[in-house]
Hints:
The protein is an alpha/beta fold. The chain is 34% helix and 31% strand. The chain is built from 4 helices and 5 strands, in the order E-E-H-E-H-E-H-E-H. It has a 5-stranded mixed sheet with strand order 1-2-3-4-5, sandwiched between helices. Helix 1 (32-42) runs parallel beside helix 2. The longest helix has 14 residues, at 69-82. It is globular. 27% of the residues are buried.
Amino acid sequence: MPDGPRYAGHGSFSLERSGSVFVLDAQGPWNLETFAAYAKAALPPVGTQFQPFGGYVAVSGEALMTPEVVPHWRRSNALLASAGLAAVAYHFLDDAGRSVYQDVFRLALGEAPFRVRFVDSRTSALLWLADLGFSPA
């Protein structure tokens, strides 16, 4: 990742942990600078191990990223999985673009190190995560 921003960040995010669910509200598209800010906020120190937890990712705006983000995203996913992330539900809020965004994320994810489900509502995401044993506070 760059030592300092090369460009202004594009996209935004908010991140919180609620019970055993990691909640990411993201607005795209994202460039490397925004991803670097996310990674700094989301990644625990190397070697940290939590109780297993699930993730709910709600994406508004364009669910796209610059190609240079993809290898960093895959590495951060591997680090989060090694720290306990076991399943992630992705919810694209833009109904019109949902199928395209799901295809983009499937390709970018590659072999995800955790279970993945694409959902069409927060309720279905949280029900799926609850079935796996992960519940928000």
